[in-house]
Amino acid sequence: MMKNLITRAFFLLLAGLILCNVPAWSQTGDVEEIAISIKAGSSKDLSAFFENNVELSINGNEGDYSRNQAELVIRDFFKKFPPSDFEVVHKGKSGSQIHYFIGTYDSAGIDFRILVKCKQDDNEKKIYSIDINKE
Hints:
By secondary structure, this protein is an alpha+beta fold. It is 42% helix and 43% strand.
């Protein structure tokens, strides 16, 4: 009887700890999903994380684009520089709603540094800015 009570208490405690950490997992998952989209060169998957308006800067060419326009610009970048590899090298946040990460993007030996800025919206991140620069 006592062993059964201890087992139940353990599983309830474990379930409580797991449920308390779900939002943190989903936030990390967003960054991972964004990174996977970049590594795969999938503008469609990446655009699922876009805000309605996105600031893009690619090698100094800057502009504000709608979600659909930004997807086309990123698609052109991926066609011109298909990904060989992408790795997140730094993640951070500013305040409670602004999150960012920096990654290195390789395209057939040409290296780029990509800075992605996101706003926290409910339990998901929405990209509002991407800055891509050749190293």
